Structure to design on (73 residues):
């Protein structure tokens, strides 16, 4: 554990005044925010990856579709 001296706006202090373990509460809030940011980054990377491979995936799918449907005609 590391001790920090931080400044927090009064309105936020008022919101957490009844929280018994403020350190744990603030740590959990920070962890939740970091997890959300990391998920957004991952989502963005997955979307970019999908967009980058979309054309190739369609071409491969089209080739397989042609082969699969050959005997149906």
């Amino acid at each position: 554990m590391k001790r920090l001296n931080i400044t927090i706006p009064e309105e936020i202090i008022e919101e957490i005044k009844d929280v018994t373990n403020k350190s744990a509460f603030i740590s959990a809030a920070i962890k939740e925010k970091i997890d959300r940011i990391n998920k957004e980054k991952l989502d963005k990377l997955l979307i970019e990856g999908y967009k980058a491979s979309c054309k190739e995936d369609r071409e491969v799918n089209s080739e397989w579709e042609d082969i699969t449907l050959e005997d149906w005609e």
About this structure: The two ends are 70 Å apart (CA to CA). The mean pLDDT is 89. The helical segments are 10-15, 22-69.
